[in-house]
Amino acid sequence: MASFCVRPNGVLQYDLCLYGRRFRETSGLRDTPENRRRIRRDLRRINAEIEMGTFDYAAWFPNSRKLAEAQRWLREQGSRAPDQRFGPYAWQWYQLHLGDWKESYARRVCGVLEGYLIPHFGEWPLDQITERAVRAFRHELLELTNARGERRLSNARINFILTPLAGVMRFAESELGIEHPMRQIRPLRDDRDDPMPLTAEQVHAFLAAVDPDYYLYFKLRFYTGLRSCEVDGLKVCYVDLERRQLRVREARVDGRQTTLKHRKTRRDIPLSPGLAAELDRHIRGRQGDDYVFTRSDGRPLHPSWVAEQVWKPTLKALGLAPRRVYQTRHTAAVLHLAAGENPLFVSRLLGHSSTKMLFERYAPFVANALGDDGSAFEAMMASQ
């Protein structure tokens, strides 16, 4: 811990005990009541940082002749200190980074810390979290199953669980000199399901069968590829009927209105005359801050409620295979491309930064929609 003393020349001096070793630094201040109050304020902050394990010698004493020696000592001793267990350090890391994250992302990180990382690594000293330990932890996550014997966690979910762990250990490396154990660990292969877009005929059948209260909601999703968070958070003020545009500016995530995750998702979506007319009738009489789409009782929409109460029952009634609501977005992409729309336009419609994903993800489905199987070429050759 840290205290102060008065040197024989009447100058106040910091007296620090860091992991059993003493370091003294001059304050350059004369011994007066005002300067003593100032030193005590500094000492409260220094002792708090030492207690939390965040004390930075260079920040307090940048011109000290003992700086290199003190930093080396702190690196050597820091990882062996009782307060350098993963749990307390991870929460410090979390608090320090809150200002860098969106609120929704911070809640997800907090959930990972509370649900996975702290229960497993909470009492571990930071310098004992090795590559072997991390790989063993990941293997445990891969082995988790539900009551039906199916894997509980997807590869994408496991990768996300390990992301805060990597962040904590990277921070510990820069601050405490602890070797980062995850440099050689690559993310698991993305195991997302292939797109299951609906055909144009299936879209028409779905819109004819769905509850009329949600007809326009799903039509807009099939026609524009809006994500759940974007359409659920769409407000009347973002419907520009004069220019026939939807301005995508906000989203509704985890029951809260928020800004968009990425700048590239901020976009203006053109509306056909027919769709604009339907929206005009739908929002007539509403205020600018009202949601465009709500439940029948006026409450805001939530993706899981839409999926369970509207989407899945309609698919089942039509005899269509189960699929996620996100397939409305895949459907919009495939049908726009199959209709001959410019890929750059479709990419902007969906909020992608380039057309690369369109060709990588949707090319086979567009070929099927157009009947592109080489038969046109064979017919041409046969006619010669």
TrEMBL record:
The keyword Transmembrane helix is annotated on this UniProt entry: no
SUPFAM superfamilies, per the entry: DNA breaking-rejoining enzymes
Residue ranges constituting the Tyr recombinase domain according to the UniProt record: 193-378
GO molecular function annotation: DNA binding
Annotated PROSITE patterns: TYR_RECOMBINASE
Annotated GO biological process: DNA integration; DNA recombination
Pfam families in the record: Arm-DNA-bind_2, Phage_int_SAM_3, Phage_integrase
Chain segments annotated as transmembrane: none
Keywords carried by this UniProt record: DNA integration, DNA recombination, DNA-binding
Stored Gene3D superfamilies: 1.10.150.130, Intergrase catalytic core
Family: Belongs to the 'phage' integrase family.
Protein name per Swiss-Prot or TrEMBL: Phage integrase family protein
